[in-house]
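Cross-posted from the bioinformatics board.
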Amino acid sequence: MRDLSRHNRFLSINTATLRRERPPAEVVPAQDAAGIPGIGPGREQIQAIGIKGAARLIGDHGLTVSGVSRAGVFTAQGRSGLRQVVDDNRRAVDEAAGIGARCLVLIGGGLIPGSRDLADARKLFAEGLSALLPHARAANLPLAIEPLHPMYAADRACINTLAQANDLCDALGAGVGVVVDVYHTWWDPNLEREIARAGKRILAFHLSDWLVPTTDLLLDRGMMGDGVIDLPLIRSWMEAAGYRGPHEVEIFSERNWWKRDPDEVLATCVARHQTAC
Amino acid sequence: MRDLSRHNRFLSINTATLRRERPPAEVVPAQDAAGIPGIGPGREQIQAIGIKGAARLIGDHGLTVSGVSRAGVFTAQGRSGLRQVVDDNRRAVDEAAGIGARCLVLIGGGLIPGSRDLADARKLFAEGLSALLPHARAANLPLAIEPLHPMYAADRACINTLAQANDLCDALGAGVGVVVDVYHTWWDPNLEREIARAGKRILAFHLSDWLVPTTDLLLDRGMMGDGVIDLPLIRSWMEAAGYRGPHEVEIFSERNWWKRDPDEVLATCVARHQTAC
């Protein structure tokens, strides 16, 4: 396994980890100052200063963009609204490509509004992904399907296992890969097998931790080492599968980390990445 | 499919659905009065009046016991404490057999205290189940493995998919079956396949609904029809697999149903079972 204890070379921070709605002009220099070489910005942060502005800012500080969050959500407006959602996803591809991101992160979207048909939501996601793919290929921007935890199946993400994401990759071919996020997948009895199956398709690796107790379904993720996920074990599976990319820390934590000073959060990420991952 | 709209013949109520800690001497007559033929008591309710007392009370009212909740939890005291936990499970078998239950419901238990090794927790569950099985076979009392939602993997249940439960049944043979609970399994892309695979091993079917939003990981289950689960679809899979047993309503609802009068809750269960399932 790679030795993480002596440098931060593989570390990236998803900007949602910091107190919400910090502008990129603050976040990017702060990460640079903390010695963190990777960044995972949200679309809204790119949009706030424009693609060129974001590319310049990130480039000036020499950061790697481990991925852009989040696109996909092809179920949001039902089948009749798919074209609009795909159009918006094309803009997301342009934003991600425009700042040199390694991938664009796609989540499923929940059930189609007004429907209880989960299989149909999954079908619609596949249709949207398929419709988006030519544009992403033309932009040379890999699409990274991120399965989210089953507790989000209803309202956020109908793609809930790495097996589903791998099946979609099998069906669609080049230009599509997967994100492995420990928070969403750690419970999965097939995780080791599906990481091995994903192999070179793995485009990103997201880190946080599962707290016991977890007090909120969305906004109570833990800092690495504060929870129960065996992070080194999952990382060993990732490396066995050939993954050598960044480790992107993504923590939504209303009751703890979002209340703290961003510099403290970044320093903690650096320390925990060295000792707990 | 069976027609549920005209009678309550298949309906059972897990007593946890009613306001907490109602004594059996109140719950059993209330269910009988509401015309509900099945009951799923907790162990503590049997213990409160003794096995013979519970058997008499339930028998006097002519109720069917769809299952006894909950046993298993073989991980609770680690490997060194397994024997004690298995002993307690043997008492649970005796309680369930003593009141003529159709099955004893087993859940996984979470991670072993102090450990992050989920695979080891799963292994310990299998060891406990295997140790318990001879006693259950001798008592002619089927053990029903209930996979719980992946959001409980850390602290309640390391058995999280029906596939895992089916694998355990394959390994252990006669005397072990599964519970299908819509709340825990509705998101699973393999659910239809695994229900078909379970077939005659299905010992119980639990009903509630997934609310959007869900405000608490444990105590915010919905009444059938109030959430997003396609209950008739899952029931059609159950019947296609040959299941003809009771439908046990199990709703933990701190903010809503537990605050209401038990008679109102029972009447709502009856109505929703007829119209939403």
